[in-house]
Amino acid sequence: MLVIDEVYHHTALQISSSDLLYLIERLKVKKENEIETLKQKIEQFEQKRRAEEVAYQSLSPVRKWFAGRPASHHQAVEYMVQVKERFRKMEQIRRRIRDLDQIMERIQSANHNRQEEIELSPEIIREIRQLSETEDVQA
């Protein structure tokens, strides 16, 4: 199967459809792992904030006055920016996974129609090339 670059319209890869399906499936797993990692980072950050709040609430009123709030306004804004950025990145990854699902469907229908070409975005081609180098698949 020939993989054609959507932007430059030239042959980017020449790979069997079964190998391409395998690499796309591995790429989907990799993307799902990235989402799980981001979820874990958000949860760790939440746990840290809850622990700081519990520690602050356990202080006497005088010590609270000297210690100050654990999450100042600046820290709260920083926290929201970090969490929002991670959620945005997770949504981008989910969108990429949906794109990969659509590509797999096109490849499988191309096998039935005996077509030998499929167009992919340069980003997906780059990721498939990188993955093929680590997976020892000829691309």
Automatic annotation (TrEMBL):
Coiled coil: 24-55, 90-120
Keyword entries, A-Z: Coiled coil
Name this protein carries in UniProt: Uncharacterized protein
Species in which this protein is naturally found: Paenibacillus polysaccharolyticus
